[in-house]
Write a structure and sequence with these properties.
InterPro entries: CxC2_KDZ-assoc. The chain has about 190 residues and is α/β, with parallel strands linked by helices. The chain has two domains: about 140 residues, no CATH class; about 30 residues, no CATH class. The protein is about 30% helix and about 15% strand. The protein starts with 12 loop residues before the first strand and ends in a 49-residue tail after the last helix. The relative contact order is 0.10.
């Protein structure tokens, strides 16, 4: 009969830095490396590129070029695919879902009967989603190419103002305070 095994146990190794091709100087990643994707949670054997060249990328950049967002930048053990991050963002915006349910959905997609060892990476995933949401806010506000840098983003500049809310000097007439009994009309929003 068939046994459920991961590609890691079958010997598959993911090579970073060479577009999937073999690297002459690979360095093995951590043995407990996990990839969270919309299809579930996957244990992966990973090889980083350590070629001695001038255009060598650090490990974080190699993961990002693969489409994987690392949970930590110093020694990543957990990554989330960009597709998973975007799917969760859509899930929270449209369905008002929370991270706890989405995280357990991914775990159930991997092992619905909870037979295998329990994977607990909730804190890392929580940190990644908060960081991702902030990066996407900065991107949508056009702060990525600001000469002053992302660090100098003024407070409140990432918010989207409600066009229906009254803003003196923008969408209210100059004499709105002297409206008398019609003052209530400027409070509708």
């Amino acid at each position: 009969f068939f046994d459920k095994v991961s590609l890691k146990t079958l010997g598959l190794r993911v090579q970073l830095g060479h577009g999937g091709c073999a690297c002459p100087c690979p360095t093995a990643g951590p043995p407990s490396f996990m990839v969270f994707d919309t299809s579930g949670v996957h244990a992966v054997n990973l090889d980083y590129c350590d070629c001695p060249s001038d255009n060598k990328f650090d490990r974080r950049t190699q993961l990002l070029r693969q489409g994987w967002f690392p949970a930590t930048f110093s020694r990543p053990n957990t990554v989330l695919t960009f597709d998973c991050l975007e799917r969760f963002h859509e899930h929270t915006l449209q369905g008002k879902g929370n991270l706890y349910d989405f995280y357990h959905l991914l775990l159930r997609k991997t092992d619905n009967m909870n037979i295998c060892d329990t994977i607990y990476r909730y804190k890392e995933i929580h940190r990644v989603f908060r960081f991702w949401r902030n990066i996407m806010s900065l991107k949508r506000a056009g702060r990525g190419h600001d000469p002053e840098g992302v660090e100098n983003t003024p407070p409140g500049s990432l918010t989207v103002e409600c066009p229906a809310c009254p803003h003196p000097g923008r969408n209210l007439p100059e004499n709105w305070r002297e409206a008398g009994p019609l003052m209530y009309a400027y409070n509708f929003f």
